[in-house]
Amino acid sequence: MPSEINIPEIDWSLIMPSLVIVSTMLIVLIFDLFDAISKRVLGLITIVGTAIALVVSVQLLQAGTNETQFNNMFRIDGYSLFFNIIFLISTILVVLISLSYLGRDDRKQGPYYLLILLATLGMMLMAAGNELIIVFLGLELMSLSLYVLAGYFRDNPASSEAGMKYLLLGAFASAFFLYGIALIYGATGTTSIPGIAENLTAESKSPLLFAGVFLLIVGFGFKVAIVPFHQWAPDVYEGAPTTIAAFISAGPKAAGFAAFLRIFMEALPAITPEWNIVLVVLAMLTMTVGNVIAIAQTNIKRMLAYSSIAHAGYVLIGLAAANKAGTSSAIMYLLIYCVMNIGAFGAVILAKTADGESLTISDYAGLGFKKPLLGMLMSLMLLSLAGFPPTAGFVGKFYIFKSAVEAGHYWLVIVGAINTAIAAFYYLRVVVTMYMREPEDELEFNPYPATLVIGLVLAAIGVLLLGILPSLIVDPVNAIALN
């Protein structure tokens, strides 16, 4: 008698956020076929679909959902749902600033929003993956979409170069990650995250296991741009469309850390002392290299790229703390970082002149008085990135450092505090340039695009609200953090 095939029962309501994103992708794809429909409508459809998925995720989170689906490969709990909220907020903000960035050129709009939705779906898979294979599938779905988006402006050599560099280095990182999964499977006999934790015995703590963990760190290190796996970030951020640079710096970075946290905190707690020391060293290196090199940058996108690398180091502090406080502070920091960094890139787009984007920091001379709204929004985002109160950036850094102190990593906190002071220099340099430097040339600026202003105002509200009322995020994050 042939063995029966057991088809798992699926509660479709639990995976509704992902289903909404897939449905939105199909609608965008169908509407893109009709030439009579303005392609700007596709952006609005993307925002509506993403907003619906966001509402569903919030409802599932409030209901205290904690279930697994697809033979325990897909986990829907407070952790994955909160990360869904981070991804979906990032997507909405990026699409809002993209509507004005792409303008009315229909040729550029169709696949653009489809690829953003595909990347978002990949992020959601990474956060919900209860299997290393599912995490890898989500990682590749996200990465392949981002490679195309980075080189989306094919008539721009810098964009094409960014896409090619991202693809080649990303392929190597994916190979390292997959080989790491294979070695961990060889050591523990499973790719299930709970199963790895159960099967980790004294016998399985072999060189094979540690080699696999090291390769996972390399793979994740590339995706979240930590030193020494960061070399792709400045070139890709500079060459990619500014909206995509904002997207890459936010949602995908959060997705990488979502899987990073889940795997190391839930699958590998038995070898925490071994991987902890590695993450402490990487956190110190990442913060220092990112901030020091950012000082020398004259191009604002490259400056924000190195800033992004430094912020990955701050998140690593939370992971290195290896406790519930560290996990909750890292999750909180990722939400705050996504909002303020997308806001910073949006302000760069808002500074666009009739001749193109103002990308050199010296181009911002006198901008605070010529375009007061732009100066105010840009200053707010930079001050938040630097960690000044009463912005959300201050709250994020406070809880990150607090978790490291509780874990006894005092030197890590000292290095982080020194790096925060270094970062304040290059962030404030832009603010000083906007308000205390005379412009060398008279530049003609474009009018404020409505959707871009809406996106920036929403980001500004988030930065101030979370900075003034941190309990809005602290309590929910503490409830869903991994132990």
Q: Count the DSSP helices.
A: 20
Helix content: over 70%
> Could you tell me how far the N terminus lies from the C terminus, measured between alpha carbons in angstroms?
46 Å
Molecular shape: globular
> Strand order within the widest sheet?
1-2
Give the uncertain stretches in residue-range form: none
User: Structural class of the helix and strand makeup?
Assistant: mainly alpha
Tell me the radius of gyration.
Answer: 22 Å
How much of the polypeptide forms β-strand, as a percent range? under 5%
Beta-strand segment tally? 2
Question: Could you give the order of the helices and strands?
Answer: HHEEHHHHHHHHHHHHHHHHHH
Question: What would the average pLDDT be, to the nearest integer?
Answer: 86
Largest sheet: 2 strands, antiparallel
